[in-house]
Amino acid sequence: MQLQHLRYFTALARERHFARAASACGVSQPTLSAGLSALEHDLGKRLIERDRRFIGLTEEGAAILPWAEQVLGAVRGLTHASAALSVELQGEFRLAAIPAALPLVGAFGEALLAQNRGLAMSVHSQTSREIERGLAANTFDAGITYLDHEPAGNVLSVPLHEEQYLFVARRGTGFDGRTCVDWAEVAEMRLCLLHQGMQFRRILDRQFADCGLSVMPPAIADSYVSLLSLVRSGEFVTIFPAAYADLVSGLDWCLFLPFDAEPAPRRIGLVVVDRDPMGPMARAGLLAAQALQRVGKVG
User: Fold this and answer.
1) Going residue by residue through the chain (299 aa), what tens digit of pLDDT does each one get?
2) Domain HTH lysR-type, which positions (predicted)?
3) What residue ranges define each of the domains in the chain, with the CATH number in brackets?
4) Are the C-beta atoms of 16 and 54 separated by less than 8 Å?
5) Which of 140, 154, 230, 281 has a CB 3.0–4.6 Å from the CB of 96, allowing a cystine?
């Protein structure tokens, strides 16, 4: 069994498309298909449902997927451990971050790359549940996610930021001159929010429920950029993490207001798998996060 064939298999499971999987692996589609057939032959099992296109994984394919991810993750960790014996850590540091934490990756990346000149950082926007699965499978070296709500298991963490809410509206839609808003009035507005598969939305729904309220937004999205575009139309309002206000503070049409009753802040921080021995990439991430924590640079 060849490791490259496992890479083809996990890429196809991720991309769910033969051409995209081949592109992700840097090979031709016939090469990818031949490698997948060889893997099926080696295991004596049909792993992929196909009919000129990818349909899905078979039951056997779904069963071996997490093992394939762990094998590839272990090989990657072995490579990094070997590289760590050199003067400078080399390679790609894979960071996963929840959308609410994306404004924090700049400061973290600056600290990480200042301490490790031989690294390149790749950032992946993921849900908190995807981060937990990816860390367990060694797909990511570290994640930036919520620490208190639905916390990931078997991780070491470094708090970096305390999240707060901001109400967002277009100027000229009735909120100019206001200094704050309250939860009850916002619940009655035309809201656009993230979908409920994202933890920020689940926490927000819980906050409304704590106030005896519920919301049924007429528009949902999976990114804050989409929400901002909807607000710009003048037809919607939304709720953002305060960290985003600094990123878009130069937008003259955009109005940010605090809530009159802000709930307790939600901690966001870096997490790595609590593993012995700890991989050099995870250790580098922890050290960078601890440096940020000491200087209070993230907030």
Assistant:
1) 788 888 888 888 888 888 888 888 888 988 988 998 998 888 888 888 887 788 888 888 888 888 888 787 777 766 655 555 555 788 999 999 999 999 999 999 999 999 999 999 999 999 998 999 888 888 899 999 999 887 777 889 999 999 999 999 999 999 999 999 999 999 999 999 999 989 999 999 999 999 999 999 999 999 999 999 999 999 999 999 988 888 887 788 999 999 998 888 889 999 999 877 788 899 999 999 999 888 776 66
2) 1-58
3) 1-65 (1.10.10.10), 84-161+265-299 (3.40.190.10), 165-257 (3.40.190.10)
4) yes
5) 140
